[in-house]
Amino acid sequence: MDPLVAAVDQGTSSTRFLVFNARTAELISHHQVEINQSFPKEGWVEEDPKEIMQSVYECMERTCEKLGQLNIDLSNIKAVGVTNQRETTLVWDKETGEPLYNAIEGPVILPASSLDSAGPSVWLDLRTQSTVERLINKAPGRNKNHLKHKTGLPISTYFSAVKLRWLLDNVEEVQQAVLSQRAMFGTVDSWIIWCLTGGRNGGVHCTDVSNASRTMLFNIHTMDWDPELCRYFDIPMEILPKVRTSSEIYGWMVSPDNLQIKLLCVFACCLGDQSAALVGQMCFKDGQAKNTYGTGCFLLRNTGTKPVMSDHGLLTTVAYKMGKDQPPCYALEGSVAIAGAVVRWLKDNMGIVQSTSEIEKLAAAAGSSYGCYFVPAFSGLYAPYWEPSARGIICGLTQFTNRNHLAFAALEAVCFQTREILDAMKQDSGIPLKQLQVDGGMTSNRLLMQLQADILCIPVVCPTMSETTALGAAMAAGAAEGVEVWSLSPDNIPNVTSETYHPQINTDESEFRFARWKKAVQKAMNWETTEPCCNTNGTQPHTYSHHESQ
């Protein structure tokens, strides 16, 4: 039997455990468990760290049962890697092994039904807004990019340091544990690795460079925690995990007593989810890029061994470091807030489609938007505009426009937003993109993928095996020194089958459509301004009711 490598893939809404063949990259077996999010107050998003671990154990157990049914010996699993939602923040007690508070979420997508505002949006845990304002006020010139030269990031509610600061300021159990030197901080990867390598009985407290680079406490040049950054946020350095590379043996897996199935293998990889997808898409060369299409989109572009600072509001992040003797690789990152969410908006809010799969049929029936453009800036525009006052707009309507054209315009909007970010990456890095690797739920929409190729004027490559994030973690674990069952050298990388979409329209037409899109974006700008409303006495505008229309 070929050697196998497993990956724990811990996301915001579910946990999965997947087992791959290290020679062929084939997915052998997997199991998934949904995770509950809690919203204790408006704008607060949390998860129970113990439920996260319970879901990890359940996924491991079920996957191993399935392997047993396939007559596969578990001793063939040589290593496990972990990939995780980045930025989600936890503090736990190293003596009792108990979490001291719920995990505070990174960026989360909420369903439309749980938001008062129209439609789903990328929902950040907003409790840290006042913390962020206080930190920005400390910066010279109140500049939110004051720490960017060290971190690659703006001071924002997004990153772990401000959530950790909030926990230290507001949760007495965390304050007490820090004073008595019992507190451990980590992102989800650190919590999982600590628990699975023994927990309070010698568990390994570590993270990797890709996750550390999203905390705002990590210097992306020295590749370690930065004392000056820790002082800025007033974070005690002794609670931080040890920073390791993304691919090395961290320790042996210790199965808890309540697990029927015992896995005897090493923990050998840790990668933030977007970095893992970059590795799973084999984007190892400077200039290669991937886009993950979910409710939003995440674009990462490998910039090689030098960090590139963006002039267009993109983030500079550490992509990975594949072993102690390897140099770190950096990436530029940009995200589209509303991608799949626009389809859900058409379904849940407007009733234009009955199911998310129906949008492809409607758009194909139209074959074009016939001059209709849809800018889904439901909660402002993100990279590269960073314009919070923008709002959604549909323009270019004629009496000929119907719901099919609107469906087409919605798909085009995802592609145009992706192009905006790739254009910004090109300007920052100076290198044009030759092709785009894609993954995520929306890639099953073939029309969308063809539109993306047409709008970018380059080929779009979609692997047939959709689990690229988990694959990336498995590859890095299997390639670690001392495991070495998976080769990452270009000559030996397993040949993953994929489908390539080539541009089918000429460049002039593509540029014309993109110019029209940019015109529509300008019309969406500066909508939510603070000029006085017509009703100057500050009352709400009148809402017309049913009886007034009779």
TrEMBL record:
Its EC number is 2.7.1.30. It holds the Pfam family FGGY_C. One of its GO terms (biological process) is glycerol-3-phosphate biosynthetic process. The keyword Lipoprotein does not apply. It catalyses: glycerol + ATP = sn-glycerol 3-phosphate + ADP + H(+). Pathway: Polyol metabolism; glycerol degradation via glycerol kinase pathway; sn-glycerol 3-phosphate from glycerol: step 1/1. GO terms for molecular function: ATP binding; glycerol kinase activity. Residues 290-480 form the Carbohydrate kinase FGGY C-terminal domain. InterPro entries: ATPase_NBD (IPR043129), Carb_kinase_FGGY (IPR000577), Carb_kinase_FGGY_CS (IPR018483), FGGY_C (IPR018485), FGGY_N (IPR018484), GK1-3_metazoan-type (IPR042018), Glycerol_kin (IPR005999). The keyword Nucleotide-binding applies. Belongs to the FGGY kinase family. NCBIfam families: glycerol_kin, PRK00047.1. PANTHER family: GLYCEROL KINASE, SUGAR KINASE. This is Probable glycerol kinase. It comes from Myripristis murdjan.
